[in-house]
Amino acid sequence: MWNTLRVTDVDVDIAVVGAGAAGLSLAHRLAGAADPRGAAPTVAVVEAPDDGGVRTPPRTWCFWESGAGPYEAAVRASWDRLRVRCPDGRTAEVPLGAVRYKMIRSPDFTELVERRLARPPRLRRLTATVHRVRDDPAGGAVVHGTDPSGAPVRVRARWAFDSRPPHRLPAARTTLLQHFRGWFVRCAADAFDPSAVELMDFRTPQPARGLSFGYVLPLGRREALVEYTEFSAAPLRREEYERALRHYTGEVLGLGETTVVETEQGVIPMTDAVFPRRAGRRVFRIGTAGGATRPATGYTFAAVQRQSDAIADAWRRGRVPVPPPAHAARHRAMDAVLLRALATGRVSGARFFGDLFLRNPADRLLRFLDGRSRWWEEVAIGSSTPVWPMLRSAVELPVLRRRDAVVPRP
Questions:
Q1: What distance in Å separates the CA atoms of residue 265 and residue 347, rounded to the nearest whole number?
Q2: Residue 1: pLDDT above 70?
Q3: Residue 371 pLDDT more than 80?
Q4: How far apart are CA 360 and CA 57, in angstroms?
Q5: pLDDT category, 33, cuts 50, 70, 90?
Q6: Which SUPFAM superfamilies match (predicted)?
Q7: Cβ(225)–Cβ(181) under 8 Å?
Q8: Which of these, 17, 63, 260, 387, has the minimum number of CB atoms within 10 Å of its CB?
Q9: What pLDDT digit, counting tens, does each position of 265-276 carry?
């Protein structure tokens, strides 16, 4: 672990606010980034105190990757097949070829990155509740906060990157929430196929608008993370998630005798809002706050890595390290149409995603979900969706009013 500095005034090249996936990924990339003069930046990571419910609880991140990535030592499990089950019983098997679907848990990721960041002498860590991040009139940026004792903390930097997840979203035409609760279960008998992920199991009761599905990440033949997920306007109460999980594990999966060893719960905004990546001349937003979350799927981790790579590369080249857009404009536009179609109930979410996986080659679909597809592939994918409801949603988007939304805490 790092040695936490007991100081209240720090001057560095780069300040990173938040020590989640986005903040730690950026600090990790910057640790080996030397500028044109051969100097690696001095970096301060400002982390929230572990009290008062400020920190994000442990969670699971999944992503596609070919070969061994920079965080391979933190990968808890990986799979070479995905499975999507339609409400009518049809099943799409998606072989991943050279790509693996990987799972990382946030405590393992944090431990790995902190262990690596303990070595470079130009990295510092502060524990503080951050109140504001702004341009410094004297030049650069400044982070203001208080440490756990209540003493003021001030970090001056050439550049500041704020990764704190937003509580209030930018105005959007459509905002849905991907909300879920998961059980880490241990079964008395073999119950899971450890080679395949149940990516979307639509054998769950479907809401009138949006969708629901089961999600199973096998950790062995008798252990798995089993989640109940909805895309809808508002989260459920805890007892409603528990009831849905009991139904899914008992009546749909038929797991029999199981023990719940751990739980996790979360809310991910799915919105066509435009997230500004610049909050000042010297202040930038990264992670979900900087638009890294894919609007139609909720996947964030891979986009965070792309943002971090681009920022570190800009430092190396002596350029302004503004984070690039995490997703192409045309992909955000297609996602906006889908969100509108789901929110209005014009499209059955279960049928839409089921047909998407049944009617498209695996490699094409994975490129699309990862934001690497070409326009002609997207035309082919679009032809496998309900054309008229999607067109109606696309036509009305330009005249819709954008409204503010708040992200509820899980």
A1: 27
A2: no
A3: no
A4: 36
A5: confident
A6: FAD/NAD(P)-binding domain
A7: no
A8: 387
A9: 999 999 999 999
CA distances from 23 to 19, 110, 114, 162, 226 (A): 5, 10, 11, 8, 28
Q: Show the tokens assigned to 12.
A: 């560095």
User: Given this structure, which CATH class describes domain 1-166+275-327?
Assistant: alpha beta
Backbone angles phi, psi at 116, to 5 degrees: -70, -35
Angle value at C-alpha 129, between 170 and 319, nearest 5 degrees: 60
**Which tokens go with 55?**
């920190």
Residues 292 and 336 sit within 8 Å (Cβ to Cβ):
no
Report the pLDDT averaged over residues 173-193.
Answer: 96
User: CA 357, 360, 366, 372 torsion: positive or negative?
Assistant: negative
Q: What is the DSSP pairing of strand 129-135 with strand 152-162?
A: unpaired
Q: What is the pTM of this model?
A: 0.91
What distance, in Å, lies between the first and last C-alpha atoms of the chain? Answer: 28
- Cα–Cα nearest to 308, from 110, 26, 23, 15: 26
Residues carrying CATH 3.50.50.60, the chain: 1-166+275-327
| Cβ atoms of 284 and 323 closer than 8 Å | yes
Confidence of residue 52 (pLDDT cuts 50, 70, 90): low
Place of tokens 């808890």: 76
- Tokens describing residue 264: 């996790």
* Per-residue model confidence (pLDDT) at position 9: 84
Q: What is the mean pLDDT of the chain?
A: 91
